[in-house]
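[agent] plan:
  1. take the single chain provided in the ticket
  2. run structure prediction with default settings
  3. attach structure tokens to the ticket
  4. add a short note for the reviewer (M.T.)
[agent] executing step 1
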Amino acid sequence: MKIRMVAIDLDGTLLNSDKEITQTTATILRAASEQARVKIVLATARPPRSVMPFYNLLGLDTPMINYNGALVIDPTCQHVLMHRPIPSKISRGIIQLARRTYDEVLVSAEVMDHWFTDRFDPAYNTETGRLFPPDTVAPVESWTDQSMTKLLLLGAPARLPEVAEAIHREFPHQVTIVQTEDYLLQVMHATVSKAQALRVVAAEMHVRRNQVMAIGDNANDVGMLQWAGIAVAMANAAPQALAVADHIADHHDADGAAHAIRQLILEGLEPNRTRKQ
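[agent] step 2 finished; step 3 output follows
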């Protein structure tokens, strides 16, 4: 079946270690879009403001998957295709629990594309936090009366497993927790995943599951890889992602994602694995 859509993670996948899209990668993705009529969809844990420079660089006109799938938005018209936030009552409970468990934990919330926090410490920061300052720095009580697209809990790696365990114990079915860095817990609504968001995007664009290729490198990409017709994991990927891949791409510092698109779509080669493990 012809691939009509490619969903690609950013950090560790499309971006190199300098957090850039190389000219080689940009050229191959444009060729896939223009020559093979493939829709390129960025699927990331980042908020929209941190993705738009790459979206614009590639000249995309497709929906964008943000916050690990909690928000799907069409940047061309700002239409929200899906938004699954954490209810305010649950968010407040999680923040209180996190602070009781580890009183120095840094707490941030993303609401759509706005960043709220009560305390900022550059020692523990996300890639987005290095590029954009908080929109609001104020006491937690002043901004927790609203549903939250994503909660972020940052701090000493030795303490965060204790926080995650407490959340799992007291909120077992209300939220999902993703940890891709040892200093950061990302907390979303229980139904949120890149896989579910990709289903929404594929349906919106009238693309069948077996016409979708997904490319990723981390644990939060596994569901998306499993759902897609062809799953591509980077050579630098986490074991969980490698285990479900149909094809292993080169390292993200060697334009691996782009070369996989060139090989499997533009050149029509077969995946280098015969089936998912």
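[agent] step 4 note for reviewer: The first strand starts at residue 5 and ends at 8.
[agent] ticket updated
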